[in-house]
Amino acid sequence: MSRGWFLILDGVDGCGKTTQAALLVRALAARAGREAPLHLREPGSTALGERLRALLLDRGQRIGPAVEALLFAAARRQMLDELVEPALAAGRDVVCERFHPSTFAYQGAAGGVGTERVMALLEAWAGDPRPDLVVILDLPVDEALARRGGARDRIEDKGADFQRRVAEAYRRYAAERPLGAPAVRIDARGSEAEVFARLWAEVSRRRA
């Protein structure tokens, strides 16, 4: 049995990750004619990951960017061990919302921890298995803010200027491709169908 494919969808809050991930899962299942890909969100998906997610997003918590990075790395390692590697080894594809680009952008760049420092942490503690493809859904911050409405958690509370620094860092990630995973930017403007057409074209081309 061939090994499954590990795909990441990432981008600023409100870029459409969840919608596009669901569409991608259905399309991959239909094309393969086998079990639907495992659809994950990060942090989360495991019992530990969901508890860490609640803690990280809790407006009542005061958590610095460096501690955020450590908690995200812990949640990610648990997800990789518990869910991702077993699925891939069994030949099942995995589609995950958020991964290393988020930590690079939110904590490393916008949060001031340092992108090299964050990537060294992730390489050491969450570097395997590596994604086969990272897709950055690139959407102007003002449009993303309009799509999602007001802030809903502690990280979204950091405001539009913070989100703009995050968006620029995502573009850097796609250009620099730290840790060696293939990465591509997709224009996330337009309708759900228009964005998915761009995403599916890129995925199909790379997995022909």
Report the span from N to C terminus. Answer: 18 Å
Total domain modules: 1
Number of strands: 5
Number of helices: 8
Helix content: 55-70%
The helix/strand order is EHEHHEHHEHHEH
At the fold tier of CATH, the topology name is Rossmann fold
CATH class: Alpha Beta
Oligomeric state of the chains in view: single chain
**Which structural category fits the helices and strands?**
alpha/beta
Low-confidence runs of at least 5 consecutive residues: none
Q: Shape from CA axes?
A: globular
Structure description:
The chain is an alpha/beta fold. The protein has a single domain, classed as Rossmann fold, CATH 3.40.50.300. The chain is built from 8 helices and 5 strands, in the order βαβααβααβααβα. It has helices spanning 17-32, 47-57, 65-89, 100-110, 115-126, 141-148, 160-176, 192-206; strands at 6-10, 38-41, 94-97, 133-138, 183-187. It has a 5-stranded parallel beta sheet with strand order 2-3-1-4-5, with helices on both faces. The chain is globular, with a radius of gyration of 16 Å. It starts with 5 loop residues before the first strand and ends with a helix. The model has no long low-confidence stretch (mean pLDDT 95).
SSE order and pairing:
Layout: E1 6-10, H1 17-32, E2 38-41, H2 47-57, H3 65-89, E3 94-97, H4 100-110, H5 115-126, E4 133-138, H6 141-148, H7 160-176, E5 183-187, H8 192-206
Parallel strand pairs: 1-3, 1-4, 2-3, 4-5
Helix pairs in contact: 1-8, 2-3, 3-4, 3-5, 4-5, 4-7
